[in-house]
């Protein structure tokens, strides 16, 4: 008797399981549809903003308006006509901007492995060159800064960097500035924020070396 009851109840359990599975799939589909609808609304809003016939160039910026991809026309801050499909706008921030360069591994001239972080400050002097002489000048300025910082750090002794950080900052500003000036961009300054050995073992060895140097007897010629 119990065997028959189990057999009779089995289809009900199967149907219930099937209903739960179908409900889960329907709920997942509704959630996915809701997310897709939100993304579609955002895309539509972005396209609607791009279709505006009027554009505003903010203060501290310059823009170039291209007609059918050519004949760039300089636009100063203010209200301007920007006809969709006919015009393309290139907007440039002419204010001083900083780019962080974090946790860069390198070696000093005396082969000490170090970890360096700093900030590169620059300003666009010629918006035309920044738009049309280089692609994505912000990213390229960062790449130049990263390469220059590793190279310049490698030309200084560890003790020299510790004692004269302003000297390495000035050299970095000159090296980076010479590399990016053809893009109409000026490197205003470079600030090294952190400079330390790349691991604790190297730091400990340097500390021991400094302790030894302190306790060495002073020679008559060094006085």
From TrEMBL:
Coiled coil: none annotated. CDD domains: SPFH_paraslipin (cd08829). SUPFAM superfamilies: Band 7/SPFH domain (SSF117892). InterPro entries: Band7/mec-2_domain (IPR050710), Band_7 (IPR001107), Band_7/SPFH_dom_sf (IPR036013), Stomatin_HflK_fam (IPR001972). Residues 52-210 form the Band domain. GO terms for cellular component: membrane. This is Band 7 domain-containing protein.
């Amino acid at each position: 008797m119990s065997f028959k009851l189990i057999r009779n109840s089995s289809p009900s359990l199967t149907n219930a399981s099937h209903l739960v599975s179908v409900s889960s799939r329907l709920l997942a589909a509704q959630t996915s549809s809701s997310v897709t609808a939100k993304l579609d609304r955002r895309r539509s809003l972005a396209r609607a903003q791009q279709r505006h016939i009027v554009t505003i160039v903010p203060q501290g910026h310059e823009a170039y308006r291209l007609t059918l991809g050519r004949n760039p026309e300089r636009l100063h801050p203010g209200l301007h006509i920007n006809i969709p499909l006919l015009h393309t706008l290139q907007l440039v921030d002419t204010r001083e901007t900083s780019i962080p360069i974090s946790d860069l591994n390198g070696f000093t001239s005396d082969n000490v492995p170090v970890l360096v972080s700093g900030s590169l400050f620059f300003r666009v002097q010629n918006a035309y060159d920044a738009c049309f002489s280089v692609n994505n000048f912000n990213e390229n300025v960062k790449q130049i800064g990263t390469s220059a910082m590793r190279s310049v750090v490698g030309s200084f002794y560890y003790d020299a960097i510790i004692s004269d950080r302003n000297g390495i900052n000035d050299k970095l500003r000159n090296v980076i500035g010479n590399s990016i000036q053809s893009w109409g961009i000026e490197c205003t300054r470079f600030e090294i924020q952190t400079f330390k050995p790349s691991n604790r073992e190297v730091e400990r060895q340097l500390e021991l070396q400094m302790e030894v140097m302190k306790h060495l007897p002073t020679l008559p010629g060094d006085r």
